[in-house]
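[09:14] KT: can someone run the structure on this one? pasting the chain below
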Amino acid sequence: MLALEVSNLSLSLGKRRLITRLNWQVQAGEMWCVLGRNGAGKSTLLHALSGLQAIDCGEIRIMGRPIDTLSLTELAQVRGLMPQHINDRFSCSVGDAVAIARTPWRFSASVCEDEVQILVSDALAQVDMLNRIDDDITQLSGGERQRVALAALLAQNPLLMLLDEPTSHQDMAQQLLVMRLIRQRSADHAVIASCHDIHLAARFATHCLLLGEGFYDAGPVSEMLNAQRLSRVFGCEFDHLPEVMAAV
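[09:31] RB: done, structure tokens below
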């Protein structure tokens, strides 16, 4: 299933053009890692794909429909964004923070609260946070709060999952946990994650989008992660590349 189609997309931040005429398709069953230098536009792109960032020109389609024709409820049902930075304005329990992700379905159908609680508990168990379900989210560490945000995305369960630096606050063991989870979820979802770690991309992604200054490159990991392409994108020489391997 074609989950995302981007046509001639251009994005700017202030007066700086970040992305020019991006043409890109993402299928359910694929996990894409977006790689590039700091400031290349990775986060801006994810926010544009989610409908939260204005675009200069072009079109974004989710499940065949232009993103600007989807109602807010429809949009929340088909795509979800896990942001890199989360600023909690008020206290609530970890469980309630995850349950909020099921709100789009409360507007469109009868919701069984017992089913919601099962989804919440299952999602927190997957990210190893079930034992913190009653804790205040404002008392969590950065890494713990990030995993709660991932649990919310899992509970939301949209076809298109967008994750901005999902491992940025995690230790090594939790990085592997997070990447395994989103790779597993990509079996029947479309997953796009920005990433700085080329080794994690090589190990878990099926495809990569490389964002360079004034250009982009997209395709299977085995074609993208080579010295020539990476040197052009990052502006430095690569004399050792990570081995592309299947996720375990």
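[09:33] KT: thanks! Residues 129 and 148 are 7 Å apart (CA to CA).
[09:34] RB: yep, looked fine to me
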